[in-house]
């Protein structure tokens, strides 16, 4: 959970949104577990070759889980946008009170790894001069691990796991981290507008090819 070293209505709203986010991520994991138990994903057919409901799965539970996951993913995306706006409001409130930027302590939370949801909280802060982007995010597929973690198109990557602009050589380094981190949390630091945001993403197989569901390319 993000630690914001100040009190105020904006902070309280953000903390409540964070709690709601954690609950949604927990329920997504629960619903995903139902699909995994039935060995199906979000788009596998629920009927056999003759058009009858498959007898090797609980069709009712799978349909309900799929519908619930879609609803929860939409709620999660909206919450992440509200959290980002709320944190910006906290920043403005503190600037108004003492003319200095807020002190925001980032501590990664430990969420489950099955759904690829964000395991860290996004707390924007100004970009430091020594921080340089080495890659940029292209498209982000809806419902993907990258999407659920809060990654957005045009985010500039300052750090991806152990890779930053000091040691970056080519995109194979990113591919190696992703392939070796399936089901594990990877800390990503991005520049969005003029702020730095910390994101935790869990590479995992999902209903489309790839482990992240986004395109990352070298920054030109």
TrEMBL record:
Keyword Chaperone: yes
Compositionally biased region (Polar residues): 106-117
Example of a GO biological process term: proteasome regulatory particle assembly
UniProt cross-references to InterPro entries, sorted A to Z: Nas2_N, PDZ, PDZ_sf, PSMD9
Coiled coil regions, renumbered to chain: none
Record-annotated PDZ domain positions: 93-194
Gene3D superfamilies: 2.30.42.10, 6.10.140.1710
Annotated keywords: Chaperone, Proteasome
Any matching Pfam family: PDZ_2
The keyword Chaperone appears for this protein: yes
Location of region: Disordered: 96-125
GO cellular component: cytoplasm; nucleus; proteasome complex
Matches recorded under PANTHER family: 26S PROTEASOME NON-ATPASE REGULATORY SUBUNIT 9
Family label: Belongs to the proteasome subunit p27 family.
Name the UniProt record assigns to this protein: 26S proteasome non-ATPase regulatory subunit 9
């Amino acid at each position: 959970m993000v630690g914001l070293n100040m009190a105020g209505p904006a902070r309280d709203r953000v903390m409540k949104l964070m709690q709601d986010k954690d609950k949604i991520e927990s329920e997504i994991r629960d619903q995903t577990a139902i699909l995994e138990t039935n060995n199906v994903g979000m788009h596998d057919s629920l009927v056999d070759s003759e058009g009858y409901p498959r007898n090797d799965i609980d069709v009712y539970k799978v349909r309900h889980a799929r519908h619930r996951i879609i609803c929860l993913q939409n709620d999660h995306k909206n919450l992440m946008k509200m959290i980002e706006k709320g944190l910006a409001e906290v920043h403005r409130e503190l600037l108004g009170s003492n003319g200095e930027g807020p002190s925001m302590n980032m501590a990664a939370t430990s969420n489950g790894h099955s759904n690829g949801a964000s395991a860290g909280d996004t707390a924007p802060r100004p970009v430091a001069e020594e921080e340089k982007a080495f890659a940029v995010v292209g498209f982000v597929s809806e419902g993907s691990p990258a999407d659920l973690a809060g990654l957005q198109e045009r985010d500039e990557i300052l750090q991806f796991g152990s890779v930053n602009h000091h040691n970056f050589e080519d995109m194979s380094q990113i591919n190696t981290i992703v392939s070796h981190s399936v089901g594990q949390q990877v800390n990503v630091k991005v520049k969005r507008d003029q702020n730095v945001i910390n994101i935790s993403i869990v590479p995992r197989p999902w209903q489309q090819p790839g482990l992240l569901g986004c395109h990352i390319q070298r920054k030109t």
